[in-house]
Amino acid sequence: MNSSNKNFPPPAASGRRFGAATLALAFLAGCSSAPVHKPDETKVKQFAGLGYQTDEHFGIATTYANWITANLEFDISLTVPAKLGPFPLVIYLPALGETRSAGEAWRAAWAQSGYAVMSVQPLVDDARVWGSSTARSGDFALLARERYSARVMSDRIAALQLALNELSRRHARREAPLEKIDLSRVAVAGFDMGAYMAMAIAGESIRGVAGPVLPFPVKAVIALSPYADFAGAPFSERYAGMHGPILSVTSDNDTDVLGLVTSPSIRKAPFETMSGGSKYLLTLSGLPHAGLSGGGMPPTAGETGGPPSRAERSDGSADRGRDGGGRSANRKGGPGGSGSTDGGRKAGDRPGMFRDAVYSPTSLAIGEAAIQGVTTAFLDAYVKDDSIAREWLDKGASRWLRDRGEIKRK
Questions:
Q1: pTM of this prediction?
Q2: Which of 47, 92, 178, 179 would suit a FRET pair with 144, their CA atoms being 20 to 30 Å apart?
Q3: What does the mean pLDDT of the chain come to?
Q4: How many Å apart are CA 221 and CA 236, to the nearest integer?
Q5: CA of 306: how far to CAs of 281, 293, 362, in Å?
C-alpha cells in the first residue's frame, strides 16, 4: 500500500479552556448571520456545573492530515490535549454530508477531558452526498436508500478498516502527533450514519455486510442518534451479538429528515433488544435530530421553541441546590423543543433539519451540555476504568438530568 507523504503539521499551542456550557454557547452564537438570540448563560452554567466533572481540564489543539492508502484518500482531523500523552483514543465517525470537522462540540469536550479524538469520514462520497445528482434532484428518500444499502455499507466499513490500519502503521512509526495516542484504550463514537457504523463495530448484524475487523480492540461505543428500521433482519437477530459497553443517545424529537426513521421511538430499539451488561440509553427531552450532531444549532426566534421544562419555566431556583449526583469533593465535581420540519425544500437543497422550526436557545445549549457530561462520564467509566465515573452514571446522572431527559442501564 502506498501512503502519502502528507503528515500532520505541528500542533499549535493552545492555552484556551472551554467548559461544556461555554462551548455550547459559542456554537449557538456563531451558527448564523441572522439575529442571534442567546441562551440564558446563567441557567446553562448552573445546569452544567452540577453535572459530571473530570479531574483535569486540558487546553487542546487540532491538526489535519490527508492519508492515501490502497488508492483511497482519507481526510483526518486529530484533536488532542496540549500536553504529553499518551491519551486514550476516541474515533469519531460523522453523519452523511459531514466532513472530518463534524461533531466539534463532542470532540472538544472529550479532548479537554483527556482523550485524543480522531475524526474521519471513511467514504468521500458520503462527505459530498449533498452535491450528488440524486440530492440535486431533490429525491432524498432515494438518496437515503442508496447510502444505507448493504453494498455501500460494506464499502464504508472496508474503507474504515483501511484508515484504521493506516493509523496503526503511522502510530507504530511514532509520527507526530500520533505518539500521543494510546491504542490499547480505544472507543468509537458516531452520529447518524456514523452511529450505524459504530453499532456495526459493536456487533450489530447487518444482512449482506461483513463485520469489521479492526487492528486494535475497542473498549466502548457511543451511538448518537442510532439508526434502526423494520427492514431486513428482525431486531432480535440484528442486535443479539452486541457486546461491550454501549451508550445510545437519542431524544423524543429525534426524527429522520431523510425519511428512513419515521418515529423517534425506534431509535431505542437497539438498546431495548440487545442483551444486558454495561448498556446505557440516554433519551433527552425536546432536542432535535441535529442537536445530537455536536455541530452547532440553528437560528432561533427567541425562547419560544416548544414547551420549556419545569426547570426552565422557573426563575432558575428549581435547578439550584438540587443534588445533581456530581463527583465527590476531591474530584472537583461538587455534589452531585419543538418538532423540526423539512418544509419548502427545493431540488438541490440539503434537507433542512431546522427549516420553519423554532427552538429555545437555552434548551438547546443545556441539551448539548447534557450530552457532553454523560458521554464523558461513560468514556471515563469504560475506557479509563474510573469507578467514580461509573457510579455517577448509575446514580448521579438521573438526579442531574431530572426532567431534561432520562438515562437507563441494563
A1: 0.78
A2: 92
A3: 79
A4: 20
A5: 24, 20, 12
